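User: My advisor, Dr. K., asked me to get a structural model of this assembly before our group meeting. I'm new to this, so sorry if the format is off. These are the inputs:
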Amino acid sequence: MLTLLGLGLLALAVLAGLGAAGLGRRLVPLGAAAVAAVLGAVAMATLALGPVEEAALALGPPWGPALVALDALSAWFLLVLAVVALPAALFAAATGPSSRAEAAAFPLFLAAMVLVLLAADAFTLLLGFEAMSLASWALVAARHPSGRGRRAARLYFGFAAFSGLCLIAGFALLSAPGMGFSEMRAAPPEGWRGTLALVLILLGAGSKAGLLPFHLWLPLAHPAAATPVSALMSGAMVKIALYVLVRALFDLAGAAQPGWWGAPLVVLGAATALWGAIRANVETDIKAILACSTLENVGLITLALGLALVFRGADLAPLAALALSAALLHALVHAGFKGLLFLVAGAVAEQAGSRDPDRLGGLIHRMPWVAGLAMLGAASAAALPPFSGFASEWLVLQALIQSWRVAELPVQLLSAAALVTAGMALALAAAAMLRFVGLVFLGRPRTPRAAGALDVTGLMRAALVVAGAVCAALALLAAPALGLAGGIVTGLLGEGAAPPIAGLDLMLGEAGARYAPWAVTALLAGLALALWYGLHRKGAPEPRRSPAWDCGFLPPPPDLPFGDPLTQPSAAGAAQPIRRALGGLALAQREAHHPAAPGSATPARLRVEARDHGFVALLWPLGRLRRLAGHQAERLRGLPLSAYLALALGTLVLLLALLAWGAVA
Amino acid sequence: MTGPGDIAYDVAHLLGGAMLLVGFVMLGQRRIGALIAALAAQGVLLALAAFWQGHVQAAPQLYLTGLIALLAKGIAIPLVLHRLAGELPPPLRTEAPGRMGAGLVLGVGLVGLAMLVVVPATTGAGALARVDLSMALSILLLGALMMVTRRSALAHVAGLLTIENGLILAAVGVAGMPLVVELSAGGLVLVVALIAGVFARQMRERFASLDPGVLDRHRGEGR
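Assistant: The format is fine. Below is the predicted structure of the whole assembly, which you can bring to the meeting.
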């Protein structure tokens, strides 16, 4: 297995070289797709057959060989990666890279993510993580030599550097006994060292996954990349960050950590979920809507992980297994539908020429394939039964509902608040998906370009269909998929824990709640068939057009072939009720009303400026601090010669004193 | 292999200690002429230490090191510096008063720090190497401290040469140090001393002062 994966990594490196040389515009992404398929197969085989033992590579850092291994947890996230990477690479082959830098960075990005998952020592893991950050930054920056996209790339780079530094410090604390994972497991951190490691890992992995308050870069950087890269960043890269979180907090820090470790994860997860869901309802770029929905899903997964930690600390192994299974399943399912939705958004941008919903609309008539797959993805993201998002979000909610079994009152209050927040986030996410589909695919085209869009064909259609097929399969096969994760649950939580499945159903205990995807699907399909049949048999034989109020949405008059644009809601208009009711939670907004002058025929205008609270509360003070520090550092240049010498001597003495203190301690 | 009571250890200890003492003399010396004389004495002591180590370790290349130290640091460089100092007008041949006592106290602190660092860090090595290394580090730190506390450019040169003396003392104290390292370090310092001498001469001609502080106004940054 490891040999196969090593060959895959080598192939990706060769592909990166080809891409850098400007050769094989189609070959490079197609090769990446083949490698992704192999990754998926290896991951499934490992999950089914058992983990691969640790192996030492012939190369590595100066103090020892690099260690690689593939246990159940790594294999699960490898599967998550493959689920996004395969259709994304196919889509990339259909569109082709825009530059040589992009062609070279795409396989490197994939390879770095695989390296993070394969690593069995702290150095290799951090190496892969940093390479992943750099490659993804390069992919964003290569498309935008200047302007707004470049600023987003710079912001992303800043956050990635911060995350890398925090992770290095956190793993340094964990790896006091040694760099290898087995050595770390043998001597888990205790006391203040453990707490500091928790904080640092949460900051590092959290800022990469987009947890509050380090989410600011995500809705800017993810949409700025090329479509396949956006899909990979949103579907897979944030999961790699969550993998690091799970690896460090569940596995390396040992099973004996206290239950309150989960509390910050629950709080941050719930807050991020609500924040992302609110912002997804307000964005006016279809890829930004999807990126904000990623925030919501990352929040849910983190919430479930935090619950699992709380339950584990309270010795409630079955409930911890439930929460951990929910997190793992949602990570996989989200990869499926978010990959699909990003590729759909890319196809729309490619074929209809815009990502602004105000320039789209009515695409269901011109692009039936894309529209159908988009609705499949949106229904999954909105967690409608029987689509794929429902099973995992049902598990998350069940875990939250069951948390009254923890005896402590603070935990009960916290989880009750988290339940309310998560419920709100789920409803808002469904509203965001409704707005997405409604604005882009339903109604009438808003521009001639949208009216003339053509459906996807060839490789692009294949990419979308593959992603859709994965999404649909996960809807029906949620329980068997979760069964593959059994090794993770028992490995992290002890022998007594198992995923909550029974055959093809998800089930909480013998007498608990139960969700049978097959039965629900069959029931809904039967109802739909009966409705269709009844309408055809009992309804009117011919469709009849008759005037209706229809919210003022009139058929197009003869002088306006696309209809009166004012009869269709705009993106901002559709967002307005939720923005006014809840937007203030996440956004600092300002509305300016410009009425038309008396007697003028121009329409009144409502101008809305909305900005994430994070910019005002976090980023701008940080910028001011940086300028202040810069000014202070500038004063160093004016020092006299003896002061420079004194600085050098002082540093030397300080280091020597540190050395002497270390020798004494 | 050696310890207190053994002649090899005692003589090496004596020479290193004498160098350290001369370092303190330089730190507390206001007159440039006396400072240069002390530097010459330190160079001679270094040469003797190198000869002694060559004898103890039966390493003939250390005699060469000692010879270079004697010729360059004991004779040539002090002569040149002496001539430079002789060209100075008499008021510039002494340092301005003040801060000497604090400098000496700081120097004692640095010696203590050097002991604290070296002694635990070299538990595996022989007693000779340990004491040698701690004294070498002390001399090095004293030289750096002299560069910080003194105002005259010639004193800066003397401080730099003291640092280098400390380095060479450390190098000769460790058995098996290749000759090429000592030679290159010695050559480097010779070049630095040359440049510093030329610089000090230019400075005196241009500004009639050896205080590098007068240069601060000429850095072209519009302060």
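One thing worth pointing out at the meeting: Residues 1-252 of chain A form one domain.

User: Perfect, thanks a lot.
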